[in-house]
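User: I'm curious whether this sequence folds into something compact or stays loose and floppy. Could you predict its structure so I can see for myself?
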Amino acid sequence: MRRGSLSVPPDSPHVLTFQPLLCEQAKSVVAGGLAVAVEPVINLEELLAPISGENPAGENLLYSGLHDDVREARRAEEALDQGEWKREIKTSDWPKVVDLSAKALGSKTKDLQVCAWLGEALVRLYGFAGLRDSLRLMRGLLENFWDKVYPEIDGGDLEARANAVAFLDRQSARAIKDVPITKAASSSDCSYVGWEDAKRFDIPESLEGLSSEQIERVNQLKEQAEREGRTTSERFRIAKNATRRSFYEETFALLSECWDEYKALDKVMDEKFHNQTPGLGGLRKSLDEVRTLVEKFVKEKRVLEPDIAEARAAEGEPAVQEAPETPAAAFGSSAGPIRTRAYALRISFSALSNGDRCPWSCGLRMSSRTAMCSRSCARHSESKLRRTRQGRVPEEITCTGNPRILCCPSPSRFLAF
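Assistant: Here's the prediction. I'll summarize afterward.
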């Protein structure tokens, strides 16, 4: 499975039969800028139901073969050079891990280590929705089955139980950084790990003005990134720009739910483990880093893709108003006053959604990545914006790619806000 990708869920009665994050059954509906949460990916009610009245936690399956089977299913081999004796590299079978663990928790045992394995697999398969549900499940086991849950308490020693929770903390902290935080048909998905790579493999948008040595260094970085399978800043930039606001709204909503579940689980752990609590420091750090980055992207996309209601409110327009026949009609004559940036962006995205050409007379195809046209000259954006603010019209006007400038090649209609 490609790193950071989401897989089809296994056929298990305890795993709901849909594919997050943007599947038909679990798709978030964005209305008014607010994302409705993605549905659960596992049947928490069944997994947290007592095994039986007399023995709610079921039996201890430590020596039944289940633990060995799950360990083998999640095991993955490193892709090392095998020389002449090549064989297929074993990869983690996450659907099998979910299947084995969910069936055991639902019908045979309540075991924190099995829950931790299930949680790791849910994040690998379902991303942030999987993390949210795995934290809920772990909290439910601690709250409802503390006296009987496995591993058993050994003479007041909670180390075995603490180790199981620590495993979930450690593995989830790693896994969530592999979850895609971009999504677009025109580019491959990128994760937080890709974002970290991009800071190291920083490729400028233009080579203009660079010395031959600097250009050589850029080429070397590209080659190194290709060899090592790393994400360059160029690739991440393209993927982020091609991702629509609705995806970031949904992802940020999921991450906020994950944060709430983390805090709830951490509180229960303090109550149950007392001074032996393993803590969730790794998960907290990773979740905070990913959430902060996605929040930044959400804010950027809200500017580039404003809600219709927001745009109209910013312009002081009534809630319902007939749209002008053309962008030119919306803005009056070329000598007329320029309206708000929100309104300009709304007109542009109307054209973008319909696959039309740029409405500001340049005639270029709208890009699927931004609200600008497909011509780009980002290296000039700062000077152009400065000159425009000073009241002087730039000699050459093209789409800058700068979120504060909307492209329009007609000097009298240059839109800078």
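Summary: The radius of gyration is 26 Å. The mean pLDDT is 74.
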